[in-house]
């Protein structure tokens, strides 16, 4: 089907190392950090209705609901997940799992930057194609969305326009109900869902706290809570202890006084699946909705939450949580690192071109300096000094050095400088080769034309391979690990959650993985109005990442007594 028939334009995966994208995203992030506190739309949302919501499920109190996060990237990955979410039921490892009556989107609904066209082509369009109309044989499923950092890059304008403040709003067959970027939902059997909007992890605003204080009035000691957060702060707090402070404050001040038990924390943001479990609750990261895969082999095997290093004097009692499951596996995650050499040049042509231009200009500056008479003139040629400083500054910034007060911050600087010297060494080697070629003696502008047409592409490939080697080595020191995987843009190994509250109050979580997404689709325009417009031409086989997880309820109590 053509874009005119679909009503949107399917998008390629984001090239995360594209120079203009890196610059644009960096500037948007800086502006959001600098001005976010002054232009915080969460404060303005106080004027919007402050309703909490109810999802009672079926007549006997049963409810199926789904969770997906980090979607809205390339069409094939996003639609593969959307297609599975939209089917009336899935048969997964011999179990039949009905479609969720509620779909929870956990953050980063669009990449790389939030705007109307991005949401239309990367999120709304694919999900509308997966479930064009409400199901003919049942109630219309509901959709709630929590913003992540990418949703915030335009100040939440496009997010609110799509997911909130719209009468009779819908995305395909899913209807939207929320009015704000955060929400509370009463579920069956004394279960409640609270989804908080942290806005880059800074704090939770007063109107939001008032909203949840009102929603929490319904809670009591017999109630249990699922808490959705935009980011898995329990993992990130292992390196930055203050990252968990806002969530801990919310639990201590809003939920704990009611006596209700927070039994599950769920988040996306890290594009993989991981589950930590402890004596009181489970902590699940499930960011496999469509964006590039992120490593799992570097996850801490155990977490202490809240971290004992936190400066919050009234923090909750620290508890230990053990990593019990991850997808992909450690072995698969380590194996995928080696794809950096083949995938980075292909998926990031613009970045390779930029490296080729920098290397070519540096070689010409070196060649020009070497042609001058005195030694000092050779060493301090202005064009050469500019290029050398540019390379070193770029590689150090690429290594993303944190503040001097951060633990182990020096390794970022050291690796960045070493990478810079390696790129300079490559330029020096290229200059030596250039001096042994006949082109440099041609009449001007012959050498420049040859350098651009012949030397540039070759040195661009070599510089990209050197960058790939740096990413592989730096990841061993936990530096630029995200870039190692983002540069590859791995679309496979996707995941989402299908959860079930049974009439007796047992919450069961089915963590569903997809090893290989589909890249070939066939149109199905003659089916029922609620059927997916595009069907997979390649096998699209979901599986359970781990056995069903019983979070709480009579079934959990029974299983705890087993030998």
Automatic annotation (TrEMBL):
It comes from the Bacteria. The chain crosses the membrane at residues 16-39, 344-367, 379-400, 412-435, 447-473. This is Calcineurin-like phosphoesterase domain-containing protein. Pfam families: Metallophos (PF00149). Keywords: Membrane, Transmembrane, Transmembrane helix. SUPFAM superfamilies: Metallo-dependent phosphatases (SSF56300). The keyword Transmembrane applies. GO terms for molecular function: hydrolase activity. Residues 68-273 form the Calcineurin-like phosphoesterase domain. Signal peptide: none annotated.
